[in-house]
Design brief:
The protein is 31% helix and 19% strand. The chain is of the alpha/beta class and 455 residues long. Helix 9 packs parallel to helix 10 and helix 12 crosses helix 13. This is Terminase.
């Protein structure tokens, strides 16, 4: 099926002319959309059910809205499905603005997320946080966005989405960025029927995206992360080590080991368990050949109070002292019971009291810790860009980081017998303090640590 038949189906994709019709008048308005070559490839290869695995910034949103508009302007009922209300709100705003600029909206319902066009067609917008969304409706076209984020997508497709297409023998376009292999998106894309087409739409296919920026990301990111995020490949995140970029070169041996510098801030990062309770000490040097240096590890049996007794020597650190760690420390995981005055005794209350710090010295401890998959990506990025260094005296941390493996869904494998990973958790929380804005924060640190005086 070539591009030309599609033009005849619902208008030409290059600068299409859209019509606004009222009871007595007809006014011609133009909405300009020119598909790039990558989007045209999707049109040429389309079938009834189309599964598009997208790299970052391929242009799936603009392409999906283009499809939605043309079917609606032919008087055919259409719908857009997003994984959650937040994602849906963005699409609603973009699509609504496009129709308003063309003068094509007769009515709109902000609460129901529904647009009625001047030709009488109704466009529905649904969130699949409720898998029954759209049940009982009938559509000539549905767009399903970010399928990999939809929990229970197969159930939603079989029981709700697919039946909506029966009356009109409707068409479906399903878009997503890949998210490993342990999800419904991977399963449906690898088990297609004869009426389905599968596409890998890489970031390189978007001519409006500077290819040098993609190449720069390729140089910075771990290979599996780049393949997933930009090349639209299904990557098995359960293979190999959890930190695929780990190498023994990040260990500082013997006289190479770095001592605590009194002129730089000192960070203590905690992981809370009774056996053991763990703390790592690290400093961040934003200068040539700098980075995040993990200098000491402290592990005790007995809880936070016992560990803080060992850390008293750092209370008078000449520069600033900061503390971070496991979010569970706000709930007293190793510090059950009440203080004499009736105040609940949490791990962080013990730390503040014994290490003589205030709330301003606690970094992000009130925010739940980053998900394992995000943490994995950030630390692999930091390792690849040589931003993390570990003294050989941190022997348990080195063991943890060099043996940690992912589960089938890409999380960190942990148990209290063979894979405690307590030092590794403290390590992750420490790195997170330097990645508050994600990769962008680490990129800025990299720029500082590779500064050169060369002309």
């Amino acid at each position: 099926m070539g591009v030309a038949p599609l033009y005849r189906t619902f208008g030409p994709p290059v600068s299409p002319t859209l019509y606004r019709t009222g009871p007595k008048t007809a006014r011609r308005r133009k909405v300009k959309f020119t598909p790039h070559e990558g989007q045209k490839q999707l049109l040429r290869g389309r079938k009834r059910f189309n599964y598009v695995n997208c790299g970052r910034r391929f242009g799936k949103t603009s392409f999906g809205i283009f499809l939605l508009m043309h079917y609606a302007l032919k008087g055919r009922p259409v719908a857009w499905f997003s994984p959650n209300y937040k994602d849906l709100s963005e699409i609603w705003k973009i699509t609504k603005r496009a129709f308003e600029q063309a003068g094509l909206i007769a009515n709109k319902n902000e609460q129901l997320k529904q647009i009625e066009l001047t030709n009488g067609t109704v466009i529905d917008f649904w969130s699949l946080s409720d898998l029954d969304s759209g049940r009982g409706r009938k559509y000539a076209l549905i767009i399903v966005d970010e399928v990999a984020k939809i929990r229970g997508f197969k159930e939603a497709w079989q029981q709700t989405l697919r039946p909506t297409l029966a009356d009109y023998k409707g068409i479906a376009w399903l878009f997503s960025t890949p998210k490993g292999r342990n999800n419904d998106w991977y399963e449906v894309c690898t088990n297609l029927g004869p009426d389905a087409a599968y596409f890998e739409a890489t970031s390189y296919m978007n001519p409006h995206l500077d290819k040098s920026e993609i190449d720069a990301a390729r140089a910075e990111l771990p290979e599996d992360v780049f393949a997933q995020e930009f090349l639209a490949k299904f990557v098995d995140m359960s293979e190999g080590l959890f930190f695929t970029e780990w190498d023994n070169r990040f260990v500082m041996n013997g006289k190479e080991q770095v001592k605590i510098d009194p002129t730089w801030p000192l960070y203590i990062t905690f992981d809370f368990n009774i056996d053991p309770t763990t703390a790592l000490l690290f400093q961040v040097y934003d200068e040539l050949e700098g980075g995040i240096f993990f200098l000491e590890e402290h592990m005790v049996t007995g809880g936070t109070e016992r560990l803080c007794a060992d850390l008293q020597v750092y209370v008078d650190h000449p520069s600033l002292l900061f503390v971070t760690g496991d979010h569970s420390g706000n709930h007293g995981s190793t510090a059950a019971g009440l203080l004499p005055g009736g105040e609940y005794n949490t791990d962080y209350e013990i730390i503040k009291r014994q290490l003589k710090i205030n709330d301003s010295q606690l970094i992000d401890t009130r925010t739940p810790n980053k998900r394992h998959i995000l943490s994995r990506g950030l630390i692999n990025y930091a390792l690849k860009n040589e931003l993390v260094w570990i003294n050989e005296s941190c022997s348990q941390l080195i063991t943890d980081i060099s043996t940690a493996v992912p589960t089938s869904n890409g999380k960190l494998l942990k148990d209290r017998k063979f894979f405690k990973n307590d030092a590794l958790d403290a390590f992750r929380y420490g790195v997170h303090t330097q990645a508050m804005e994600g990769v962008e924060s680490l990129r800025r640190l990299k720029e500082l640590t590779t500064w050169s005086t060369e002309e």
